[in-house]
Amino acid sequence: MPLPIINQAFNLANQTTILDTPIEYVKGIGPSRGETFRKELNIHSVKNLLYTFPFRYIDRTKFHLINEIKADNDNIQLKGTLVTIEKIKGKSNRSRISGMFKDSTGFIELVWFQGASWLDKSLKPGEEYIIFGKVSLFNGKKTIAHPEMELLSDANIAIASSFDPVYPSTEKMDAKGLDSKARRKILKALLSSINDNDIPETLPQYIMEKLKICSAFEALQWIHFPANETQKQLATNRIKFEEFFYVQIRLLLSKMYRKYKYRSAPFNLVGDLFNTFYRTRLPFELTNAQKKVIREIRVDMGMATQMNRLLQGDVGSGKTIVALLCMLIAIDNGFQACMMAPTEILAQQHYESIKNLLGDLEVNVAFLSGSIKGKKREVILSGLVAGQIDIIIGTHALIEDHVIFNRLGLAIVDEQHRFGVAQRASLWKKNEGMAPHILVMTATPIPRTLAMTLYGDLEVSIIDELPPGRKEIKTIHKYESTRPQLIQFLHSEIAKGRQIYIVYPLIEESEKLDLQNLNDGYERLLQYFPQPDYQISVVHGRMKAADKDWEMQRFINRTTQIMVATTVIEVGVNVPNASVMVIENTERFGLSQLHQLRGRVGRGSDQSYCILMTDYKISKEGRQRIQTMVRTNNGFEIAEADLKLRGPGDIQGTQQSGLLDFKLLNIGTDRAIMDTARNIALRIIEDDPKLERPIHENIRIQVLRLRQQYKDWGRIS
Ligand code: ADP
Ligand code: MG
Q: Which atom of ligand 1 is nearest to 319's Cα?
């Protein structure tokens, strides 16, 4: 395995370029406005300024017609004649100027509230103008207030027929005279003062030619001032491609570096435990998909390089048994295994299911979480060091420093993108000398583009099939007014011996209110399902862990028929006899969350139902989510829809990763660009891991540059 470039000593001559010029030295800025740039927008240098892109453009290539415009506050451009202009005395001495403007299709009023005396003189009735501004309603009429006016005879057609960039700004920026218009001027001057030597090309020529990508210099010019739609597209595509290409290069280099640096023990034995379990304890025939991923994992763990693998599978696809079989392989090879889950309840549940599956097999399984304290904890910790414990299952308590293994060979992380990269990485150090193999399991499927970004340095295994005999869960949207039928239906299900979940939403900022919701719901239920004939469990996030467990246990052993809960039951809970999931205020849940919740039912052989309750009033997006849920049970499809609806930033736990800080790339919609960038990056790193071929010189230099720029860019753990 070659040493990838990432760890080569490097000395990129530290030349400063025009890009490093402090912001205050830019023409038209100066010390005071420079300070405002720094404070308000974190823009410190020419480089920062140039790489703060417009978030939209005003299309100045188009002239609107007066009879077609709408008062929708959008900026529009008109060409016509200023007919009249008059001063109007308003109330309390506030005068305004009113102008009448016409084109071939009609008239519109223009108004100015200030600067009246100056305007009086400069505007010339009877002349032709290009005007530009926002249309709004004033005194019930369509009006443009404070339009930009330019005499048609003066108009520089080159400027008038382009796209005007609009930049992110703040009130203070505007107050300092640094609105989009002023910034356009500054940027125009700045961009015309640099040439293509100032903007080094970061992509190899052959790729640019093949993909018809414009140069870095062109992209910068065109992203700010595109002359036409084509330039805008070319610049946008280039920037998006480059953003993702270098994220991929980075991930692939760290993956390679990890393979180079970390050795793991090869598990070449498939021994007694695995075989015994497989032959005599397997409670069901594995699905082909399960067999396939176990094979992939076995091959990977059989090598002396560290496995880093992502296991994806829909809710209920049977990841737990796969995890267990992998852990048995580790034990067969003389190692310990651990499994970490994001919540106490989930960890506990894993512990129970794994103990259950193992039965009387001689495997020593322990549980550890923050709530295991004192003597009990000491026993576990010393059992781990001594190597008496084979499998330990727990929460992030497992990564604390004083948790020391004897020989950790495999670490499984069950997550819902909840553990950061750093937390995952801290598991690797749990074993002296050799890193454990790592298997990351996701609780719900992740869209491919998101997986490529967040887990692009991992190998991927996918369970793409559910165990046989599952009845498709029936998902139904119901309005509040049909609650009586719902209650009736719940009665009939309970009469058949089934159990029911009723889930209330939880918003963190108003936990009180949520509790109120849940408590009201509970009180109401008691009227329909009176004790002692009916028993109801209540579980919410504010309860002590022990109380939660007790309530949960009552539901699991069927003492209670109904479980009223907030989303704490979202992840992983497994009660096959529960066949109905009622979700209250459905519009307040995200799609993935709804899918997770629905996955709590349909685990047994009975027909299961998911009932989505809402009021009549739902937002458009809420309605789309509900329609998606009703339409499909496929978690991969739902994850894609979720990404499109909400964007990646809102998906749980992804914010801190830093891998998603794209300026232009949208991982919900730019899949084609991402696929191309990933494939090209893969090929390059495979063919030329040291980036030493002359055709890859631009990449090598850019990698070094990025490393210098972001200190942690190449950091591995
Ligand atoms: P998840 O992938 O959501 O973690 P689990 O591992 O909890 O899914 O499995 C869901 C349910 O399906 C469990 O009750 C499990 O025992 C059962 N199961 C798993 N694999 C199979 C299989 N091959 N055949 C039948 N049932 C299975
Ligand atoms: Mg699970």
A: 2
